[in-house]
Write the structure tokens for this entry.
Amino acid sequence: MPARTDSFDLGRLRMTSGEGRRSELDVALDPLQFGGQRYTVEPYVVTAALDISCMTHRGYALRLRFDASLRGPCMRCLEPAQPSVAVDAREVDQPGGGEELSSPYVDDEVLDVHAWARDALVLALPVQLLCAEDCLGLCAVCGTDLNAAGPDHAHEREPDPRWAKLSELKLD
Ligand SMILES: [Zn+2]
Ligand SMILES: [Zn+2]
């Protein structure tokens, strides 16, 4: 089990203006709620690439990239799904640069990489988490899993109401 990094001390790098560095960090990702379902990240520790650029006036431009594999129910057919999500997030923190240039994840040159990775993962999620991109979902009539039922699954169409009326006629 690799050592987890929850926070990363940027100041300790003692970078100078214009300098860039890359660090590989092992970041733990907590289970998340999405669309009313619970998803775990497996393995829950991912190796993330952190690119750090030191700007003038002791500010930082940061980029965090990692791939996460989720586990939870498919949102269409409810079978187990294992979608993977590619995360590529950026932050800028410039002390004295105002609200826009102040990263919520940087406090006194210490980066809260755990919180950033969690939020970046949620923002990178697709609209629906599926077992497969072309998952057929459940039959709207009987609830059968259409992936398992095959293309022949069908129901008798509701009888045309005009024919229903005709069948009520009693012919002597
Ligand atoms: Zn599915
Ligand atoms: Zn059906």
